[in-house]
Amino acid sequence: METVVSGIRPTGNLHLGNYFGAVKSFLQMQEEYNCFFFIADWHSLTTHPHPDNIRNSAKTILSEYLACGLDPEKATIYVQSDVPEVVELYLYLNMNAGIGELMRTASFKDKARQQLHISREGSEGDVEREIFNEGNKHSVSAGLLTYPTLMAADIIIHKALKVPVGKDQEQNMEMARRFARRFNTTYGVEFFPIPASFHLGERSVKVPGLDGSGKMGKSEGNAIYLIDDEKTIKKKVMKAVTDQGPTEPNSEKPAPIQNLFTMMEIVSTKDTYDYFNEKYNNCEIRYGDMKKQLAVDINAFCAPIRERILDIAANTEYMEKVAREGAAKARESAAKTLNEVRQIIGFRPY
Length: 350
Ligand code: TRP
Known about the structure:
Elements: E1 3-8, H1 16-32, E2 34-39, H2 41-44, H3 54-68, E3 76-79, H4 85-95, H5 99-103, H6 106-116, H7 126-132, H8 142-145, H9 147-156, E4 162-165, H10 170-187, E5 196-199, H11 200-203, H12 230-238, H13 255-267, H14 270-281, H15 287-314, H16 316-345
Parallel strand pairs: 1-2, 2-3, 4-5
């Protein structure tokens, strides 16, 4: 069975966009592949040197993924910082990673720019110049620079062939492939397989935001969270942007209206969708009614997940057990690779 690895940054609660954009694909993959899904808590240190309550954010994300149906019997689910083997591989990969190539990655430049407070419009070379500026010497960390090396280590430590990630991760994936190849050529071995990206976007449904245009996202501030209760959902949906309604039959839907319909397509039955679609096409649509129905259907979707989140999160013993057993499985796989790596490089196996 092919191995799949994916890391999840613990950035707060899951929303519907996460569910339909990523979690749902994970659920399918755990049936078909040898999956390793982990919470990338070390990676969160690259942008938040003092993350508030790192343990709680890992717990939140773990309970929510479990509630969605990620199954520790089917996939290896673990917390990155429970698997120290990854760090050792990270060290070896860093020995052959160039500062230059790491500095040229777009995500490094973006984040470094933010941390140095340089505007996006700045000229080429701004980031480099500011990094080496004496007064800034602590402000961009070596950890941020080596983010792609750590990600490569996460992936190749399990000899993964496939990595489900969003399009924004393509450059990191390119680096992971490069570091895997480089290890192989440096030591003249065919040891690490070259991991391919598995684009989540193409296989999944894009959930729109309900605030006019664009997609649902945490940073967009338009997210409906799986943990949201009925009242909160209703409030968010009723606030959705609409217009005066169509004046001509069968008009094209403007973006905010299309978004409502797209959302309905995702969570409601076909009959419900058809009903409102017909009303729209006949210029008889009442957005208030449509939104009420949409809120009911979103809540019907979220409610069972929400209940499971609350149950699981309250069951500290179960959460501990999942994390412990996941870590043990992940470490077994990681240690096997690392032992071979040590011997290839010339160190004693453990
Ligand atoms: N960089 C990924 C993101 O921002 C998270 C991540 C860390 C990851 N390690 C990984 C994803 C390994 C896939 C495989 O979303």
